[in-house]
Amino acid sequence: MRRVVFLGFWVLTFTMTFRAEAAPALRTSSPPSHARVNAPFSYEIRLEWPAAEGNYEVLPVIPTFENLNVIRQIQSQETVGSLSSVTLRYELAGVKKGPARIGSMDLRYRFPDENEWRILPVPGTTVEIRGTPLWQWILVAGSFGAMFAVLARFARKKWLNRQEARKESRLLPPNPHQRIYAKAEESIVTYKGENQPATISFWTNELKKVVRTYYDIPQASSTEAEILELLASKNLPAGEFTEISSIFSRVETAKYAGRTLTLVEMETLQKTLLQYVRGKIIIGNPSNG
Questions:
Q1: Less packed terminus of the chain by CB within 10 Å, N or C?
Q2: Closest Cα partner for 22 from 107, 84, 111, 88?
Q3: Which domains does the chain have, with CATH numbers?
């Protein structure tokens, strides 16, 4: 009995001593010695420890930054093999020419069942921020010039498309379906939303109006999936169904691209929708033209 008690006491003492002495190793990825104004660079702090020690809680901390903007702060934790780690990554950019400083900090960590935080000091560092070179200013000026040329070209094509749409709309027969197609065409050509998602959403609604009208689909079917489901039941020629499904897919991809589409991409999407709508104006509705 005494041996069991002694052994239990020894294990408890060993565990408490092990946890008291356990501490993660500090690894830092130093920032560059110099950087340009507004040019992003990263500073990384990494804590590593044997996975057998268990998990640590690491308190997020933002050091003092002088002459630096914090673009983003990311904290991640992972275990690879027998090594666990927590990474603190700061994406920074210099504000103006001159020295910039990343201040020292105290990283606080602990085991989840502990109340007191342990402290691991991280030294500060300095980065020299340099001005933008002349060639970059020339490049920026050239980019603005090119952008203006693209916008001017886009505006001219938009004006020509509007004129063409008006001209074609005057030639349409007095057919209710044809008026819907013509109105959708004109709306896609002329509409400009407050932002890109609003424009794409508006174009999509006009496209769905045309499809519902052309194939006599109830207005209650408002989503692309509902429209495609009804079209599938109509036994359309494979080419027609594939065309509509492909256009809906392109619109869906544009909606959820997770980024701003370029002018060329928006122009291509607009042309695709106009090509389909104008095809209905020329061909007419299969039932009554």
A1: N
A2: 111
A3: 23-132 (2.60.40), 135-283 (no CATH)
Can you read off the two tokens belonging to residue 240? Answer: 């027609």
Tokens of 74: 């990311």
Closest CA to 234 of 221, 220, 208, 216: 216
Question: pLDDT tens across 69-117, in order?
Answer: 999 988 888 898 889 898 989 999 999 999 999 988 888 889 888 888 9
- Residue position matching structure tokens 């109509």: 234
Paired sense of beta strands 57-58 and 34-36, if any? unpaired
Q: CB within 8 A of 264, min separation 6: which ones?
A: none
Strands 34-36 and 125-130: parallel
Closest by Cα among 169, 154, 159, 158 to 277: 169
For tokens 């039932």, name the residue.
287
Tens digits of per-residue pLDDT, 165-203? 777 656 555 678 888 889 999 999 998 888 998 898 899
With tokens 């006599």, the residue in question is 216
Distance CA 167, CA 170 (A): 6
| Residue labelled with tokens 């499809």 | 211
Two tokens at 246?
């492909």
